[in-house]
Hints:
Helix content is 33%, strand content 26%. It is α+β, with helices and mostly antiparallel strands and 445 residues long.
Amino acid sequence: MFKKVLIANRGEIALRVIRTCREMGIKTVAVYSTADRDSLHVKFADEAVCIGKPQSSDSYLNIPHLMSAAEITNADAIHPGYGFLAENAKFAQICADHQIKFIGPTPDMINAMGDKITAKETMIKAGVPVVPGGEGLLQSLDEANGLAKGMGYPVILKATAGGGGKGMRIVWEEAEMERAYNTAKAEAGAAFKNDGIYMEKFVEEPRHIEIQVAGDQYGSVCHLSERDCSIQRRHQKLVEESPSPFMTDELRQKMGDAAKKAAGAINYESVGTIEFLVDKHRNFYFMEMNTRIQVEHCVTEEVINFDLIKEQLKIAMGEKISGKDYYPQGHAIECRINAEDPYNDFRPSPGRISVLHQPGGHGVRVDSHAYAGYVIPPFYDSMIGKLITIARTRDEAIGTMYRALSEYVIEGIKTTIPFHLQLMQDERFRSGDFNTKFLEGFVLR
Ligand code: MV4
């Protein structure tokens, strides 16, 4: 049993972890940069340690500072949240070397999924469907041209060290290949210090549907159904929901089985997510695995009535999972409330929240670290909260969301609320007929 957990993160996820720890009788240590002195996670934790200057590299990404904070507070575990060091195998290893439990998978598991070609090879061996493509790294432009001719255009070039859309290039015809090959390689090299790229057939107008999984230290894995994350803009998710409006019982069974095979192939420990591309014929393909708790975990919590952070802590403490799968009851939708101007290309809008009224009532959950008077610093991501609604049906969850959004008052900064209000009234969104290209044609009025 953990006595004290240090949360190596900030914002709503730090608060989210503190909440569950308090419910479980576990003491918490918040860490904060000088820009986050007045943040709620600092106020709500049992202890708080300043770990440096505002820049993430001086604070939330600074491993020596974090380890010192854990040592002086005598923490026996570290929760990394999402982002920052959550998928950093070196950090997980350093925690292990200091007899501090990293609340997440082992460094080996992080590495196995961090390199996309390795992950794909592991999935092929495990019998998980992957997008057809070349085997391994591309060695030359000639090889790329030959491979693309063989499978037919369009194709996509991806960085093996990438993920989340960084360093990707879609190639529609051979004339574009040389440029795409060179820029993808250069971008990957600059962003990840690894310029390895690989090729896949480009799946057109796919949905992004991911399966939540959990595995324990004894080899059991289960799935906790899906989330539809197709409403994205420049690889930033804006809305997530569970169940997916595109899901059928048969597809859920197949994708759930594939997700368990994927996690089982690396003996996965902790909660994690298998991301799939799903085409219009309901063919699905492994895309990547997220070896962390995700922003959108709340929609799953609401439809399976289950605290995923508690589960993650219990697994880290060596508890067994039941091994049974979980299926959604009702429908949950999450809107990300960002300090961004949706009328101005979603430009960040940091600053002071002068007036705040958060919605409540039946079927409404707000996960946010915002309060009236809080100053959103410009140094970190712009998400200031998540609004989640839960109802019996998708239509009702959308209705509750529209009502809750219209009660939400945030003054002093621009937010994504007007975008979500329009989306909830959009006929195509309401019909469930959308894919990852949906927002390209969406005009805010
Ligand atoms: C693809 C694809 C189509 N075909 N791979 C984007 C993020 C990264 N994880 C992989 N991504 C994609 N990979 C093949 N073979 C389309 C995307 C993609 C995408 C995927 C999910 C959600 C939004 C997206 C937006 C653009 C492209």
